[in-house]
Amino acid sequence: MVQPLLALRGVSKRFAAVQALMDVELEIRAGEVVALVGDNAAGKSTLVKVISGVAPADKGVIEWEGGPVQIKSPQDARVLGIATVYQDLAMCGNLDVVANLFLGREIHRFGILDEVEMERRTRELLKTLSTRIPDVRVPLATLSGGQRQVVAITRSFLSAPRLLLLDEPTASLGLEQTNQLLDLIETLRDRGAGVLLISHNMGDIKAVADKVAVLRLGRNNGLFDVNTASQEQIIASVTGAADHSAPHLPVHPEETWP
């Protein structure tokens, strides 16, 4: 068995009187897409904040390539190679693609912005990730929702992350834009990155995920192999119709996605 890139062991997180996560277990391997699903208030966003260092865990162990690590801040996560793309994207619509990619980490030469080098790196990275942005010098606001998502994910790859956290990346996209983004996720997996994908869309999950981890009321409620589990099984775990105390569930080969 290949050692996990990231492993959470008994991770818990509380906000005042609210227990957001309780004894959560999760493993993500390099070159693997794990979909994280659950109803509202299941703890998905909190788990992403724990992994990204925005809201450090209260207890439990986080392992990176088999060894325990401390993720107490976003900087700690970045040093390990963890990048996060949130739903709101946090980009500037009035700036062009190049400026958004290098926002806060601009390249200078002799004390002035090196626009030529930043544009060269932008085009090189877009080409490497097989993404399609026709003009990197147009304002971001003129691009489609799918293209803006692509720019956000591409920006995260400036630091060559080994694990990418995606929070509902296709929530506001049309069919064509969604397909482009799913192609990008497959490209990232093929390049050896681990991906944690938060999504409510079972079609997207079926298309790109290898495993599905279910959270319910802040606890593990199932871990499924996409190739052998049925959609009904997963939905039952999300809604609580199937309540499981262990993260690993038996799946039956005769049950397949519809």
TrEMBL record:
Instruction: Quote the CDD domains the UniProt record gives.
Output: ABC_Carb_Monos_I
Q: Does the keyword Transmembrane helix apply?
A: no
Q: Does the keyword Nucleotide-binding apply?
A: yes
Q: Which residues form the signal peptide?
A: none
Q: Where is the ABC transporter domain?
A: 6-242
GO MF annotations in UniProt: ATP binding
What Pfam families does the database record attribute to this sequence? ABC_tran
Which UniProt keywords are listed? ATP-binding, Nucleotide-binding
Under PANTHER family, the record lists: CARBOHYDRATE TRANSPORT ATP-BINDING PROTEIN MG119-RELATED, SUGAR ABC TRANSPORTER ATP-BINDING PROTEIN
Q: What protein name applies here?
A: Sugar ABC transporter ATP-binding protein
